[in-house]
What we know:
alpha/beta
Amino acid sequence: MKRMAKRALCGAMACLLLAMTACGGRTAGTAQTEEPETQGFVPAMDPQTECTVKVVGHYDNFESLENAFNRFAQYYPKVELTYAKLDSYNKTIALALTGDEAPDVFFMYPWMAGNEAYQPLFDAAENLSDPSLRIDLSCIRQGILYRDAQGHVPYAPIFDSTYGMLVNEDIFEKEKLSVPKTYSELLDACEALKKAGYPSPMMGYSGFLTYPLYYPFFCAQLRENEAAVRELNEMRPSAGEYMRSALELADDFMSRGYVDLALCDELEDDYKAVILRFFEGDVPMMLASGSTVSGTEKRESLSEAFAAHPFRYSLYPVPSTEEGGYFLDTVSMAFAVNKNSKALDMANEFMRFLICTEELNQMAREKRMVTPCIDMSLDAVYTSFGALGQDQIIYISDLGLDDAPDTQVRRAGNRVSTGQLTVDQAVAAFGTIEN
Length: 435
């Protein structure tokens, strides 16, 4: 386990609402039924409370959380908040929750739901919708808020993400082109850029490639088709047909020669390598996710090319239809509270502090991710997504698609995009496509 610096900074103390002197299990003093705080955070425990709250996850560093620790310390200066990276997180978190040094708050993800391997995490998770906790879940877009069969909320989204294309806006201005908003405009722009001398008008990490083009389109086909989702989740071989239109889209685009696979194969990952390659300044469009975008600002100064010749860039939806593209809203990372925490009251208090529009938006801005809040104060790099209509927004959690068929769609799309399978072969192979 790699431990980061501890934060326990003193600051201004807010007024006391409930007199408590320790942070053990839940006490009678916290069992309240008032409505969640909507006018700003007001502490519900003794500001002099002393305890340690441990957060674990898989990030190497988590500066935006550290900053939130500092703000929380203004209310509880004697609470020591720590963050640590847990090695091989997905494999070790369940065991860590049963150990002597069990975390109080831990990362969770929507894809864990329904997977037996992660059931111990759900069993250990506090119900954040418990009225006594007064956590204001209403500030979060309800389409991304997961509830189990009992209506409980085991985790709260902290960051959202989406998929799109990083656009070098200076190139488009130089070539007198508009950023495409429809599929035909995308093809026209790529053709114009190819003729202008750009060998690969669009690039992307080879393991990811056209995913931002075909996958939001695939999800859009499922929104009103519960039968399709059910058949996909049952992993019926015939359900591969539901992938066909999305795979045909990927195949059509790749067949036109606007993506140089050899150049894409040189990219070692879909984060640092993609960012630094885009910052070379000769790639008009780079397929990416919000997670990739989150690392761009910090790496502007690490790129000699960008530092010497900076340019304007933003993330845009990849237009997959003549109506445009989609904002596929997906939870990138969420927090859960360990209900067996030795500091349960304070862990819940920290979550009550964190789950509000001001804090979540602040963390999203600092991490350059999409906020999970209804009030979407998007970073300027995501401005184009804020302009999309409601019919172009897809909450992936609303689809109800399980991880197994989702993985098959991803693999099928990659195989078709890289020429390893035809559309017909990929459709027929649904349920059997290996990594």
